[in-house]
Design a protein that fits this description.
The protein has about 400 residues and is α+β, with helices and mostly antiparallel strands. The chain has helices at about 10-20, 65-70, 90-100, 135-145, 170-180, 190-200, 205-220, 255-265, 285-295, 345-350; strands at about 45-50, 55, 60, 75-80, 110-115, 120-125, 155-165, 230-235, 240-245, 280, 300-305, 320, 335-340, 355-360, 385-390. The chain starts with 9 loop residues before the first helix and ends in a 14-residue tail after the last strand. Residues about 1-40, about 40-55, about 295-300 and about 300-320 have low confidence and may be disordered.
Length: about 400
């Protein structure tokens, strides 16, 4: 079960104060008077930070795969009418043996259809190649005979059905399928966690989480004049590293610098400039703690607060367990970025074993929602969750690069 992170405490507030970056949270309270009749109340002012940067209202949104948020596509399939309803179970067993439908396992094999006062039973035979292919009853009968199916159990009335290409992932998709007149029954097993991301009803949308997210994103924006990023251990709410992109090399993006800063917190680091620029910082207390623990009694593996299973389409992050020797880069960590990362940075976040990525402003080369959704691709050996909508710039919704 996903555990809610503890509220933000004094050390984070003190750290933000040391950075001389103040976030004004909450609107000024009114005088309690009701607006005069016929007058609209004055619009709420956008939040303003110390450098005059205006911020949009908080609208957290999970960046999910297209197959999770779009209607389930339909594909053609062939169905046959059963003459004797008593033969239905036997025919289903036989067809499952000799004519399985591997890519349509989510569908029920039979469907009842009422026409007038009569109810007919149709059995799904196989998927059709296209919508326009002709249905030749003789060819269908011959194929059934070759498979050893009793063709006398079927009428010679075969029909083309439009069926769900894959199992619905959300309640909305399932209801959308059921609302169609030609709906062919399919299986749907609701994932309550995933559903809470789709409907924005998870604890991440709570006020306590909002305060944490805005505070971390404020630090990301304060990293430089253009913004930057922050790496957070959500199990302790400790900032592990914070920084920004640097000039002088085409690969020194915010995320790449953060990777090196996190590595430095674990006793590594390969980029010389990350140890020389004052605005690139890592938590030295973590490094010291790792050294002390490394010489003492072995610590037990510490599971993070990531969800405990991996889902398709970038819906749920893989469970990350911090090993006894400390985390591998960003294992179990959350990363807050002022700008949507490019493909290079997004793949680096996968390699870093990041738990969640939060970004504020979309970019034209962004790989986590704008021009791609790398975290939803098949074949990845790790996935992280992606969220956006925190403290977006009012005047620059889309920037050129991360």
């Amino acid at each position: 079960m996903l555990r809610m992170q503890p509220p933000l405490h004094t050390d984070l507030e003190n750290s933000a104060r040391e950075d001389k970056f103040t976030l004004i949270t909450g609107q000024q309270r009114g005088n309690g008077r009701t607006p005069a009749a016929g007058r609209e109340p004055p619009p709420k002012k956008l939040k303003i930070v110390e450098n005059g940067f205006s911020l949009k209202p908080w609208k957290l949104r999970a960046v999910l795969g297209d197959e999770a948020i779009s209607p389930v596509p339909l594909v053609p399939a062939l169905a046959a009418q059963i003459l004797d309803k008593k033969e239905t179970s036997k025919l289903i067993r036989r067809l499952n043996e000799v004519l399985p439908i591997p890519y349509l396992q989510h569908l029920k094999r039979v469907k009842s259809l009422k026409e007038g006062e009569t109810t007919y039973i149709y059995l799904l035979l196989w998927r059709l190649d296209s919508l326009t292919c002709d249905i030749d009853p003789n060819l269908v009968i011959n194929k059934l005979k070759e498979a050893g199916v009793d063709v006398n159990s079927f009428s010679r009335h075969f029909r083309r059905e439009m069926v769900a290409k894959f199992a619905p992932l959300t309640r909305s998709q399932f209801e959308g399928l059921k609302s169609q007149p030609s709906y062919w029954p399919c299986n749907f097993h609701e994932d309550k966690y995933f559903e809470s991301l789709v409907t924005s009803s998870h604890e991440l949308w709570g006020e306590e989480s909002r305060a944490l997210q805005e505070a971390y994103m404020a630090r990301a924006w304060a990293s430089s004049a253009r913004g930057g990023g922050v790496v957070v251990d959500p199990s302790t709410n400790v900032v592990v590293a914070e920084g920004h992109g640097t000039e002088g090399h085409p690969l020194h993006h915010t995320v790449i610098n953060l990777v090196d800063l996190v590595a430095r917190s674990q006793g590594g680091g390969a980029l010389e400039h990350t140890d020389k620029i004052d605005t690139l910082q890592y938590n030295k207390d973590i490094l010291q703690s790792n050294k002390v623990n490394g010489t003492g009694q072995e610590a037990e593996d510490r599971p993070t607060t990531s969800h405990n299973h991996l889902k398709r389409y970038g819906s749920i992050a893989q469970l990350s367990t911090v090993p006894k020797t400390g985390p591998y880069l960003c294992t179990g960590y959350d990363v807050y970025l002022s700008h949507e990362p490019c493909h290079l940075c997004s793949m680096a976040l996968i390699h870093m074993r990041t738990r969640r990525v939060f970004y504020s402003v979309p970019t034209r080369d962004g790989a986590l929602g704008s021009c791609d959704k790398i975290h939803t691709l098949d074949g990845l050996n790790h996935r992280y969750e992606v969220f956006t909508g925190i403290m977006q710039s009012e005047s620059h919704d889309v920037t050129d690069c991360c």
